[in-house]
Structures are given as structure tokens and as C-alpha cells.
Inverse folding.
């Protein structure tokens, strides 16, 4: 069974600019125990652009990944450097732009490299992008992966309200942020291990140019596909985007050649286990020759920056420190932190719960109504009221996260804190104390229980986890179609999907053999189109007004980069609600307000715009999804089903995939279908309204009870039917038995 | 098995909610439509399914981690208490799975009728109490020469008569002589032992040793039998040679102290549930047991096990257990045929319950009915239910004090969130209430079991613990009967009830403070608050129970009908008897007749069974009354003679059924909602009364006085 993976989205351990005012209350100080980070003098800023021709080792992130929202946000990136680069790089360049709402004196971007804080750059770049060179001490960088942590601490200029925190943002230009490689310091790519250090594109992606002619046949495409996956796995490439062209590539990236098809001018440098690295003698571009029949590459693991931990399959209990989260001392009004829990495709939610045990505390400055809200995939599952006007210490304060809100794939657990203080009303931003309001210590723990394993379909994670033969269907061998399919396959390999035997099919879709289908909407077979139509709805008019809560949720989702559809997000075709429907909805809403979540409220239709990308898992034969009123669950022995990647046109599909890879949200593909908006970079997830259970090939005794419990919980009508049948039978038989026994 | 598997599945809280709401809905329908037969079993299956799911969830999901030993210990204690309650619920439901009604006993010819010895054991009861029982026993309809009545007097043993203490010796001798005189008068055989070893069991065995009847009937000294007692019971022994016991209900003329002090005369009496339902259920499983009185037993069976057993202080149940384990059968006749007295004072009531409690716990520990060889499985379960029931003080005290562990010491005793509490705990409570109302509604108001259990638990907790420490230690204590209370007063043993009440009250105050200042814990505080509020209601009712109301009549008057003549000097006035008690009567005078105040005369009455036999007893007029049909006068008996008690037996207790049915006619039934509202109202009233008595009636309380005994007036 696949282990649980937990991603921790890291936050800074200290708010550097306010370090001198971090006098915590007795409660928080006692809980903290971490020494404040040293105060760092802001470096000299340069308003001019970096001179042309300067080589940057960019962060593996696009614009989305380098945009920081709210009062405090932090992300960690892994940058691969060569030996010479590690030795000679002495500057990290930040290209900063921020909203005009920021108060520069209390807003900064802090850069840490390999755990050492280098600088806190005041956020004072409202007018234009500000370039800031930051000195990198000698000996800090190492050959191979280096960790860069970017922490944004932002304060509003004039408004101290919680809603105003949603206006705060700062962004780093991905094309001009990174390590500055001195002239002549760039390492020569000498082998597969060096490929990860190849320069990234401006959007943080790894561009792979596959040298292949338009109109290639199935065999050629198949070879190229296997070669791309092998390369990505072996070289541990991140955010790969594949272009297809017979000629040499352009810009950052590398060219891929299928072994035996070496072009003229290819100068091999080294070859290891079926992968040869060389250079184009004419252009100097890196060229990689991959033997598609090379030994199967090991399964890739998600990037280091994601902070992956692999706990045992029967659950785990780890401190925040073990999850890569440092102690956080927060001085703002809206605290936000998140953990990402990646669950295997055969995860089955049961009536168990994960638990957060929070250590830390809060100050005495808080007011009534302040508290922490815990969300799982956007659903509020728990809350922790915070005492007003009295400091409190958290000593393993337990917060439950019911497993029923978790799904296969990535799950976002967010902690949102509302931390208003009386001083916020006056909002004297320059003179008011910026003291710590909340501390979350790194001794806090996340406990995730063991869980039952039963695959359900349709689920994107299950479809992506296909093993054995994987048919790959393309509408044709035009460059766009081939590039789109190869980009999908490359990202599957990068995200750790198991290696499968790829069988490329052009033009014809065998509906009896589900696989990967990458095509524009008008190129899809009718059955698949029909199935997708049942998942989507026309764009609904925007609501006239959005209340603060919705705005808050929307912004929060934007910050985490993921949102699950809610009734407000997607409106199915307008059908006048019946009285019964209104009643049922009312009851559901009432129960929901009491913490009872009946039905799958994440199963509303996705609203698609013309430029959106849609990724969906579709059951074989395009069967209609189970309705929640179906009494009996469906079972199947075969977990294979369609993974469909589509958009309104081939160009939209190609562009959408580029943006998806650049956004770094490939690991957020989950549920039955995901809509990706290339414009905003946001995704919407639809969970299946009803699932088909895949009978396991072998029964694990310990799983039987939770699986049965899960089945009954998922199928409440069936549970009720069984209840009445069993109790009726028991009652009647008991009655008959008792009548026969004893005295009459 | 499928139901069990289903019950233990870990379901989402939504599925759990859907299931319990559906199950409770169907249960409500079955109850509202008063469906019976197989529906009764379906109802119970649904109800017990909810209970089972709850207790499995409690055990598996809500006990604090052992890594917090104090929390774990407190939580485990509470879970154990709940497990006990659930176990008792299942045992009780098994016991009353199919209560049966026995047909009337076959009528025996005079030749078929076995010889019968009636034993009336007495320890310290007054002559006023004992004499009507003896007189009524003598009047029981049975073939001449086949019925003997014995007074087994442990108040006049040789040891007491020869006591080193002169006062004790004089009292015992006087009692012996008085009782012997009474027995001669009533033609009853008097038996006294050398010493009262093995308490009541030893006394009965002494009776066995001095008698020879085929059957033995036992009546407590205050249990006046009806004339038809043997007619309704003895016939059963003819058809079943292995029958060792026919038990009949105990019907009490007076309310128990809780019933009286709470002014709850309209609710079914506490023993109605046992004699109206439980014994009938036990009878189904051949497990109806001897209740110490109002029963017929086969001598042969008793002799086989060495007579009545006395290793516990509940010799009745213990003897029945031994006989059942040897293959003898028992039977229960639901017709009430004895009229008895309950303890009048609260402390006497507690003394009685303490004896039952300790005795049954002794049986549980010493006889281990679940593993007793010779018993059938249903009998094992039935005896287990009967004996284990008396562990309720442990669980009840756990429920009272567990919330305080959280409130005062912040111990985590119950790990659950609000949704789970609603889907499991509230559903469990609703199910338990519905089951109680559906099954026991005819014989028990909602919450009354909780009230009685709480009130007894405060005092019985130590008793149970003492038996666990030394199971062979308990001594038999006789329940005082026929007492009066001249004034309203607080019971001598009221202090613990006030202590518990104020502790619960204080815990609620602290809880209110915590609710205001611990916002993160409000969910849990709300749950604990509801729980503590229930405890406060019980504690408030407890205050009412220990604040005793005046009761000047030791024996209540019983509606009676009979023709008699009052003779004053030479004047004879025909009168109709309206009602009667052990101490006096009320008669209706004919038009124009008058009796002078304080006039002494003679009540003359013909034996209804033999009109040629005339009874006479002295009376004195004490009051005049206006009746709906003419004028009445209250008379008091004075002096001791056999005719007085014969008149009482023939007039007031010839047919107990009449009295019983009239009493039943006053009883009302109530539903869950009304019953709950009533309890709340009672709590307010009784708490106020309790606090008032505590403030103003402590010094004015007069000690209770035993009913004046006629012994003192015997020359």
C-alpha cells in the first residue's frame, strides 16, 4: 500500500522586522522556547534591471508560486546548483513588486538560504519592480539542492481591520529572481545528475524540447513518451513542459533526442544507463539522448521543497518541527498556515479523525470573537475560540479533523486565525505596538490515524496511479497534440506516478480500453464528452454581492491555490426548486450548521469558461455517475478508468497545460474533476457525487471493519435499509423464539 | 450476529445520526400506535441496537488516553458505570421479554388438598400489627383440619427472656406472654426459639422443625392475607410435583416515604413494576423467586436443601436460587392477596433497602448465579439481573460525581465532540426513555426509577462497598413498621442529601464561570452542564424525599363494607361499616341515631362465614362525620381480644383485590414529555421545601414514635 505523504507548506519561524518587539506574554513565551532570529539589515536596493546576459538560477516557481498574500506567507524552494556555481555564486537577486497598501516600515520579504537568513527586504516597490541584490556568504551554497525560503511579512498602511489583510500582496518576478551566476561560473552539464541544475524558464518550468517531426507515427510518439518519462524520473526534473519540434529548442531548457535519432552536430559528453548527455555543436544547447528501452526509472518522489514525509501506513504522529514547520510568532490580525496531506488513491475515509495538538499561546490583546478556524479542503471542520483580554497558553490543545473530509490525493489543512486587538480600532500603524499575538510552537503535533484502503473511482489520483499497460490517446500527431500529451506524461512522472507501459494511439479511441486521453473538447469521443458534460455547467452570472465571509474564503482559497466548488461557486442549470427540495436544503443547511455534513457538498458542477483546462477521471464506458439516492453501492474489480485532459481547443489545451505546470499545482489534481483557470491560476475541484468501489485483490483483515463502516457511511440509504431488514428480522425471530421458549 | 456486526461498525457521525433518527422514529410510531406482538420485539431490537452502538462507541472511542492516567481512570470509571447500566438494561429486557399470565389454580377437593402450615414470623412487631395477620390467616378458606397457623416469635426467645439485662428480659417475657395469650385466643400455635440465630431464615426453619404440613405459607407479620389466598395458590402444586414455590404480590396499604414526601400519590407505587411486570417476566423463565412473604412453598423441597438458607440476609431469594438450581420450579400468581405495610419513615425505608441491597449483593458474590450449576441459562441471567441490579448505587454515584471531576479538577472524562454527543449520547438517552416508557410505562412514570435510585444510592453506596469488602459480614436488620410522625421534619439521615445537593449546585456555579471564561471549551461545558442539571434535579428531589411529612395514622383506613351493631348499654344501633384500620373504624348510623361523644360501647358483628357466630369487641366514639349518605361516627378499638382482629380480618381484608383495584383506579399514566415536565416542577417545589425545612424545621422536628402498641394495654 502506498504510504501517506504529508506536505508541509512552511512558514517563517520569526517575524524578523518585529524581532525587537517579540516580547511575548508569559504564556506564549513559555510555550515558545525558540530563540528569535537575528535582526538583519536591509540590503541596498537597485532600481535598474539586471544587465542583459546575466545568467540566473531561478526558483522553480511561476508567478503564482512567488506571489505572497496576507500578513505572513512563506514558501520554500529547492534550487539545484552545480559544483562551480555553488562555489562562486555570491549574490541572490530579488525582483520585488508589491501593493501600494503596504506600510514599508513593517513589511518585508525575508530571504533565507539553507536555513540562514540573509536579508529582509522592505516591501517598498509599489510603483515598479525593485531589484535587490542580496549577498550570499561564501560556503553557504552546496552543489546539488539548496533550499531558498522566502517569507513575506506584510502590514497594511492605513487599515488595521481583518478584511484589509486580504488586500495585502507582494510578488517576486520569477524571471529576475534567483542566484546570479557570475560569468564563467556556469557549470558544464556532464551527466544526468547535473540536469536538474539546468536553467529554468522564466516561469519556473523545465522546458524539454523533443526533437520529433510533426506527423510522427504511434511508435515514434510512444518512444518519445517513454523517453520523456525516463528523463524526468532520472533527472528529477521539476515542472516539466514539453515542446515538440524537429529543430533545436530555444531559450532555457534542454533538447531531448530518442536514441538512434541523433541529429547532426550532436556531441556526446557522457552516457549513463541509457541516458546520454551532450551538446549541440552549433548552438551549445544541452541535448539529452534517451533510450526509451532503458531500465525502468525509479518512481520519482515529489520535490524536496514540498516537505514530503512518508509516515508508516498505519498512521503517524509527528511534531511540526518534524514536518518542517518552525515555531511561528505572529503579530498580525489574520494568521494563516497550512499543511498538505497527500493520501494514496486507495484512501478510504472512515469515522476516525486526525488530530492537531497545538502548543503555543496568545496574548492578552485579543478581543471577543477572535479564534482559530480549521479547514480541510476549504470546509470548516473545527474552531478554537480564543480568550479575549487574557493571555492563554496552549499545551497540546487538541483539535479534531474528521477523516471524512479527506480524499485521495492532496488535502489542504488550513489554520486561520482571527486575531483582532482593541488597538486595531485606532490603527496608529506607526506607533502601535507590533507585538506577538499568536504563537504556534514547533512542538505542536499532527496525528494522522491509520485508515482503510479501498480504491474508489472515479478519482483523478487513482487514474493517475494506473500501472501496467496505459493506453495514451492523441487526436493526431500535430505538434500541439503531441506536446500536450507529452507534457501530461512528463508531469505524471514528476509527480511520482508509477511507471506504466505506454501504448500510444492516434486518432482512434478504444472505449473498452480506458487510458489517458489528451484532446480538445471537439476531439473527444461522444461517450467521454457526455460524461464530462455531467460534471460541468455553463458559466453562472457572478453573484451581486459577496459578503465578507465569502470574500474571505475566496481569498483564502486563492492563497492556498486551491478551492473546492461550493454552491455559490457553481450553479447547475436553473431549475425551480420544489418545496421538498427547499425543505431538504433547509434541513441540510441546518444540520450543516450543527456540524453534520450530509451528502457531498463538494460535488457541484464545475463552471467552465472557454479558456479553462479540465482534468477529469471518467468511469469506463462513460457510465452515468451514481446518484446519491441510489440505495446500493457499485463494485468493480477493475480500477482502470479514463484520465481525460481537455480544453476548448488544441491551443487552449497546450497553453493551459503550460500554465498548470508552471503554477506547480499538478499535485493538487484530485477528486473526480478539476477545472484550472489559466488566467487566475486557480483550480476548482469536484468530488464525485457517488463512487464505484474497486474490490481489492487481497483482503486485509484489519481493513474489513473500517471498510464496511465506510461503505455504510457513504451509502446511508443502504444503511437504513439494512437496519430495518436486520432489526425486523431480529425482532420477528426473537419474538418467535421467545414464544417457543420458557413457560407459556 | 449480523446485528452485532452492524452495531459495532465505525460509521460516520452523519450515518449514525440518520440511523438513530430513523430507528427512534419507528420506535415512536410503534409506541404511539401501541403495537404489540412481534412489533414489541422489533421495537426492542431497534432500541437495543441504538444502545449497543452507543456503548461500543463509548468504550472504543471516548475513553481518555492512558497516557493521562488520571483522566483515564476517571473516564474508565464512568464507562464502567455506563456498561453496568447497559448490561442491566439488556438483562432486564431479557427478563421481561414475554411476561406471562398464569391461569387460575385448579380447585382442589377437600381430599386432594394438602396440609398447609402458615408461618407468621415476627421479631419486634407490635401486637396491633401481628394480630390482624394471624386472625386473617385463621380465616383463610381451606378444608378443616388441614390448615395450621404458627406465630414464629423471635421477640420472645429464651435468650431474650433470660437476658442478663433485666429490662430486656422483662420486655421479652411480657411480649411472649402477650403473644401467647393472643395465640390462644385466635387458636394459633405459638413458637419461640432458644435464640434467634440466622435471623428470619432460622426462625422459619424452626417453624419447619415444629410442623408437618405438606405446604408452607409465609406471611410477614404485617401482611394480612385475604381469605382466598390458598384457593388461588395451592391448586398449582397438584399438577406440578416439582413446583416448590407459588409467589404472590405484596400489596401495600400505605405509600412509601418517598412517595408520601413527594406527594406522588397518583403515580404507580414503586413495587408495581416488580410485581406487575418483572415477576411475571421471571415466571416465563421459571425464575420467579421467593420474596419472603405471601408465598406458598413445598416442604419436601425445602427439606431437600436443608430449609431456608441464611448465608445471606435475603434468605428468600437465596433459598429460591438453591431450589431452582436443584431442578425445582416456581410460579407467580399476579393476584394480590396480602395487604401489608411499608416503612413509614425514611430511615426505616433505607434500612429495609439496605438489607435487600446487601443481601442481593451477597448472593451475587457468594452464589455467583451466572455460574451456578443446575440453573438453566435464562435462570442464570434472571438471577444475575435480580442480584446485579443492586449495584446501582455505584453507577449512580459515578454519574453524580463524574461531572465534578471535570468541573473542579479539569479531568477529561469523556472524549467526544458535540456532533457525536448528539448522535450517540442523546440518541441513547432518547432510546432508553422510549424503551422505559413503552415497556414499563404502565407501571412506572418516566424518571421515577432515576429518582428512587438516586435517593437510595446516597445511603446504599457504603452498604454495597461494605459487602464487597466482607461479603459475609452483613447482619439482618428488621424494618420498623407501623410508625407515625407527629410533625413535618427532616429525616435523621438527611445530611448527605444536602451535601450532595450543594456540591452539585456549586459545580454548576463553577461551570457557569468556566463557560464565561473558557470559550474554547464551551461545547464540552454545555454537555457537562446538561448532565449536571439532571443531577441537580435528582438532588433537589432527594431533598424533598428526606423532608418528611406528618403521618399520624400508622395504618391507613381501608374501605370496608359490612353490617354490624353498636351496643351502648341497652341500646343496640344497627350500623354500616364504612372503613376500618387496625386501630379503629368508621360506621354510618341509621337516620335519627346518635352516639354521645366519648361513649364506650361494643361493636357486635356476625361472622360472614358463619352468621351464627357473633364477634364482639369494645369501641369508643372519637369523632362525628357527615357522610354522603347519612351521618357517620369514628370509633376506636380498645383492649385486646380475638374478635377485634377477626372483625378486622373479615371486614377489611377478606378481599384484598377490592382495596387494590381502588388504589389502582387512582393511579394515572404519564408520557415522557409530561413526566419530564412534572419532574422539573417537582424538583423546584421539593428543593424549595427541602431548603425551607433545613432553615426552619430542624429544631422543631419531633422524633418519630413507634405506633402505640396494644401490648402495653394488655393487662
Amino acid at each position: 500500500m502506498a504510504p501517506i505523504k504529508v506536505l508541509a507548506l512552511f512558514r517563517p519561524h520569526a517575524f524578523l522586522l518585529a524581532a525587537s518587539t517579540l516580547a511575548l506574554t508569559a504564556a506564549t513565551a513559555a510555550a515558545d522556547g525558540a530563540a528569535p532570529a537575528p535582526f538583519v539589515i536591509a540590503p541596498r536596493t537597485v532600481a535598474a534591471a539586471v544587465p542583459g546576459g546575466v545568467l540566473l538560477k531561478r526558483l522553480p516557481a511561476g508567478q503564482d508560486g512567488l506571489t505572497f498574500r496576507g500578513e505572513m506567507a512563506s514558501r520554500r524552494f529547492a534550487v539545484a546548483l552545480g559544483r562551480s556555481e555553488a562555489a562562486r555564486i555570491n549574490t541572490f537577486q530579488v525582483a520585488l513588486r508589491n501593493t501600494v497598501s503596504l506600510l514599508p516600515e513593517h513589511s518585508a520579504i525575508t530571504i533565507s538560504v539553507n536555513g540562514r537568513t540573509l536579508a529582509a527586504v522592505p516591501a517598498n516597490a509599489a510603483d515598479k519592480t525593485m531589484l535587490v541584490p542580496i549577498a550570499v556568504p561564501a560556503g553557504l551554497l552546496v552543489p546539488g539542492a539548496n533550499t531558498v525560503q522566502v517569507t513575506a511579512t506584510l502590514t497594511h498602511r492605513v487599515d488595521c481591520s481583518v478584511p484589509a489583510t486580504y488586500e495585502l500582496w507582494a510578488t517576486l518576478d520569477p524571471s529576475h529572481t534567483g542566484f546570479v551566476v557570475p560569468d564563467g561560473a556556469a557549470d558544464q552539464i556532464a551527466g544526468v545528475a547535473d540536469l536538474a541544475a539546468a536553467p529554468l524558464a522564466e516561469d519556473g518550468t523545465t522546458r524539454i524540447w523533443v526533437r520529433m517531426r510533426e506527423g510522427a507515427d504511434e511508435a515514434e510518439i510512444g518512444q518519445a513518451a517513454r523517453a520523456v518519462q525516463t528523463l524526468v524520473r532520472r533527472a528529477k526534473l521539476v515542472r516539466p513542459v514539453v515542446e515538440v519540434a524537429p529543430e533545436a529548442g530555444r531559450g532555457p531548457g534542454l533538447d531531448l533526442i530518442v536514441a538512434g535519432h541523433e541529429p547532426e552536430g550532436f556531441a556526446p559528453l557522457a552516457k549513463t544507463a541509457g541516458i546520454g548527455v551532450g551538446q549541440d555543436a552549433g548552438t551549445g544547447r544541452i541535448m539529452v539522448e534517451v533510450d526509451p528501452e532503458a531500465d525502468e526509472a525509479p518512481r520519482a518522489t515529489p520535490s524536496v521543497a514540498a516537505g514530503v514525509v512518508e509516515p508508516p501506513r498505519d498512521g503517524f504522529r509527528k511534531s511540526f518541527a518534524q514536518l518542517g514547520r518552525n515555531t511561528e510568532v505572529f503579530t498580525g490580525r489574520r494568521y494563516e498556515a497550512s499543511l498538505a496531506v497527500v493520501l494514496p488513491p486507495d484512501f478510504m475515509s472512515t469515522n476516525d479523525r486526525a488530530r492537531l495538538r497545538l502548543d503555543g499561546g496568545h496574548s492578552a490583546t485579543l478581543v471577543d470573537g477572535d479564534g482559530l478556524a480549521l479547514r480541510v479542503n476549504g470546509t470548516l471542520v473545527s474552531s478554537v475560540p480564543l480568550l479575549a483580554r487574557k493571555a492563554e497558553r496552549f499545551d497540546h490543545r487538541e483539535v479534531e479533523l474528521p477523516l471524512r473530509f479527506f480524499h485521495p490525493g492532496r488535502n489542504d489543512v488550513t489554520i486561520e486565525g482571527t486575531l483582532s486587538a482593541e488597538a486595531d480600532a485606532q490603527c496608529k500603524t506607526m506607533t502601535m505596538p507590533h507585538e506577538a499575538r499568536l504563537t504556534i510552537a514547533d512542538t505542536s503535533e499532527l496525528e494522522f490515524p491509520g485508515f482503510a484502503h479501498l480504491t474508489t473511482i472515479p478519482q483523478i489520483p487513482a487514474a493517475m496511479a494506473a500501472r501496467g499497460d496505459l493506453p495514451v490517446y492523441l487526436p493526431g500527431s500535430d505538434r500541439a497534440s503531441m506536446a500536450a500529451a507529452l507534457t501530461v506524461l512528463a508531469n505524471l512522472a514528476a509527480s511520482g506516478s508509477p511507471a506504466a507501459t505506454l501504448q500510444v494511439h492516434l486518432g482512434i479511441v478504444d472505449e473498452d480500453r480506458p487510458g489517458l486521453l489528451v484532446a480538445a473538447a471537439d476531439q473527444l469521443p461522444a461517450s467521454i464528452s457526455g460524461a464530462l458534460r455531467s460534471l460541468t455547467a455553463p458559466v453562472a452570472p457572478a453573484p451581486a454581492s459577496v459578503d465578507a465571509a465569502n470574500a474571505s474564503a475566496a481569498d483564502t482559497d486563492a492563497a492556498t491555490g486551491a478551492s473546492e466548488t461550493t454552491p455559490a461557486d457553481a450553479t447547475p442549470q436553473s431549475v425551480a426548486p420544489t418545496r421538498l427540495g427547499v425543505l431538504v436544503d433547509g434541513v441540510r443547511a441546518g444540520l450543516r450548521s450543527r456540524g453534520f455534513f450530509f451528502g457531498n457538498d463538494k460535488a457541484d458542477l464545475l463552471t467552465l469558461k472557454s479558456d479553462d483546462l479540465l482534468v477529469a477521471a471518467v468511469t469506463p464506458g462513460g457510465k452515468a455517475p451514481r446518484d446519491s439516492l441510489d440505495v446500493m453501492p457499485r463494485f468493480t474489480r477493475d480500477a482502470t478508468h479514463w484520465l481525460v485532459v481537455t480544453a476548448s481547443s488544441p491551443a487552449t489545451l497546450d497553453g493551459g497545460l503550460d500554465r498548470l505546470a508552471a503554477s506547480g499545482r499538478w499535485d493538487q489534481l484530485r477528486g473526480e474533476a478539476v477545472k484550472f483557470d489559466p488566467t487566475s491560476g486557480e483550480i476548482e475541484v469536484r468530488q464525485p457525487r457517488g463512487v464505484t468501489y474497486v474490490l481489492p485483490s487481497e483482503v486485509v483483515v484489519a481493513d474489513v471493519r473500517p471498510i464496511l463502516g465506510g461503505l455504510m457511511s457513504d451509502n446511508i440509504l443502504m444503511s437504513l435499509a439494512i437496519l430495518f431488514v436486520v432489526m425486523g428480522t431480529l425482532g420477528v425471530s426473537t419474538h418467535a423464539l421467545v414464544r417457543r421458549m420458557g413457560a407459556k | 450476529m449480523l446485528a452485532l456486526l452492524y452495531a459495532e461498525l465505525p460509521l460516520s457521525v452523519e450515518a449514525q445520526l440518520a440511523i438513530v433518527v430513523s430507528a427512534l422514529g419507528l420506535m415512536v410510531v410503534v409506541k404511539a400506535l401501541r403495537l404489540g406482538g412481534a412489533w414489541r420485539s422489533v421495537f426492542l431490537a431497534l432500541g437495543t441496537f441504538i444502545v449497543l452502538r452507543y456503548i461500543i462507541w463509548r468504550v472504543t472511542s471516548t475513553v481518555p488516553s492512558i497516557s493521562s492516567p488520571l483522566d483515564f481512570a476517571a473516564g474508565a470509571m464512568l464507562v464502567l458505570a455506563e456498561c453496568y447500566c447497559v448490561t442491566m438494561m439488556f438483562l432486564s429486557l431479557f427478563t421481561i421479554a414475554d411476561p406471562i399470565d398464569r391461569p387460575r389454580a385448579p380447585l382442589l377437593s377437600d381430599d386432594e388438598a394438602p396440609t398447609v402450615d402458615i408461618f407468621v414470623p415476627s421479631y419486634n412487631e407490635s401486637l396491633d400489627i401481628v394480630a390482624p395477620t394471624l386472625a386473617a390467616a385463621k380465616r383463610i378458606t381451606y378444608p378443616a383440619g388441614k390448615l395450621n397457623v404458627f406465630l414464629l416469635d423471635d421477640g420472645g426467645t429464651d435468650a431474650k427472656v433470660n437476658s442478663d439485662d433485666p429490662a430486656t428480659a422483662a420486655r421479652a417475657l411480657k411480649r411472649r406472654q402477650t403473644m401467647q395469650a393472643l395465640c390462644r385466643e385466635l387458636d394459633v400455635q405459638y413458637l419461640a426459639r432458644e435464640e434467634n440465630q440466622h435471623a428470619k431464615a432460622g426462625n422459619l426453619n424452626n417453624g419447619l422443625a415444629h410442623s408437618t404440613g405438606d405446604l408452607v405459607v409465609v406471611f410477614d407479620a404485617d401482611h394480612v392475607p385475604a381469605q382466598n389466598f390458598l384457593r388461588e395458590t395451592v391448586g398449582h402444586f397438584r399438577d406440578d410435583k416439582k413446583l416448590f414455590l407459588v409467589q404472590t404480590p405484596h400489596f401495600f396499604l400505605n405509600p412509601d416515604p418517598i412517595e408520601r414526601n413527594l406527594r406522588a400519590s397518583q403515580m404507580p407505587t414503586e413495587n408495581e413494576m416488580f410485581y406487575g411486570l418483572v415477576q411475571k417476566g421471571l415466571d416465563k423463565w421459571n425464575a420467579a423467586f421467593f420474596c419472603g412473604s405471601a408465598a406458598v412453598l413445598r416442604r419436601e423441597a425445602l427439606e431437600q436443601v436443608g430449609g431456608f438458607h441464611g448465608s445471606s440476609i435475603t434468605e428468600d431469594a437465596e433459598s429460591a436460587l438453591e431450589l431452582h438450581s436443584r431442578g425445582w420450579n416456581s410460579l407467580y400468581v399476579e393476584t394480590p392477596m396480602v395487604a401489608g405495610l411499608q416503612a413509614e419513615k425514611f430511615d426505616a425505608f433505607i434500612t429495609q433497602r439496605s438489607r435487600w441491597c446487601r443481601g442481593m449483593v451477597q448472593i451475587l458474590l457468594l452464589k455467583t448465579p451466572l455460574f451456578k450449576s443446575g440453573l438453566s441459562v435464562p435462570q442464570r441471567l434472571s438471577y444475575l439481573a435480580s442480584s446485579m441490579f443492586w449495584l446501582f448505587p455505584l453507577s449512580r454515584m459515578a454519574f453524580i460525581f463524574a461531572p465534578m471531576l471535570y468541573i473542579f479538577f479539569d479531568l477529561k472524562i469523556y472524549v467526544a465532540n458535540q456532533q457525536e454527543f448528539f448522535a450517540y449520547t442523546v440518541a441513547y438517552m432518547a432510546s432508553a426513555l422510549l424503551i422505559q416508557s413503552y415497556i414499563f410505562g404502565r407501571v412506572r412514570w418516566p424518571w421515577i426509577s432515576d429518582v428512587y435510585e438516586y435517593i437510595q444510592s446516597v445511603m446504599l453506596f457504603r452498604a454495597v462497598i461494605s459487602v464487597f469488602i466482607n461479603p459475609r459480614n452483613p447482619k439482618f436488620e428488621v424494618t420498623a413498621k407501623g410508625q407515625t410522625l407527629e410533625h413535618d421534619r427532616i429525616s435523621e439521615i438527611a445530611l448527605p442529601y444536602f451535601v450532595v445537593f450543594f456540591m452539585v449546585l456549586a459545580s454548576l456555579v463553577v461551570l457557569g464561570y468556566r463557560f464565561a471564561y473558557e470559550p474554547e471549551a464551551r461545547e464540552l461545558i454545555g454537555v457537562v452542564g446538561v448532565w449536571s442539571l439532571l443531577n441537580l434535579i435528582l438532588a433537589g428531589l432527594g431533598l424533598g424525599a428526606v423532608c418528611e411529612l406528618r403521618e399520624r395514622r400508622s395504618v391507613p383506613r381501608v374501605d370496608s363494607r359490612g353490617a354490624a351493631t353498636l351496643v351502648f348499654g341497652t341500646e343496640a344501633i344497627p350500623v354500616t361499616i364504612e372503613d376500618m384500620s387496625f386501630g379503629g373504624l368508621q360506621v354510618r348510623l341509621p337516620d335519627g341515631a346518635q352516639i354521645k361523644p366519648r361513649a364506650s360501647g361494643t361493636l357486635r358483628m356476625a361472622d360472614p362465614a358463619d352468621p351464627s357466630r357473633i364477634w364482639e369487641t369494645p369501641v369508643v366514639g372519637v369523632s362525628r362525620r357527615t357522610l354522603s349518605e347519612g351521618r357517620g361516627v369514628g370509633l376506636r378499638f380498645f383492649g385486646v381480644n380475638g374478635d377485634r382482629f377477626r372483625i378486622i380480618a373479615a371486614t377489611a381484608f377478606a378481599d384484598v383485590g377490592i382495596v387494590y383495584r381502588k388504589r389502582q383506579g387512582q393511579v394515572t399514566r404519564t408520557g415522557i414529555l409530561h413526566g419530564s415536565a412534572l419532574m422539573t416542577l417537582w424538583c423546584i417545589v421539593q428543593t424549595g421545601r427541602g431548603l425551607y425545612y433545613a432553615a426552619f424545621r430542624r429544631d422543631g422536628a419531633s422524633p418519630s414514635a413507634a405506633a402505640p402498641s396494644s401490648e402495653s394495654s394488655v393487662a
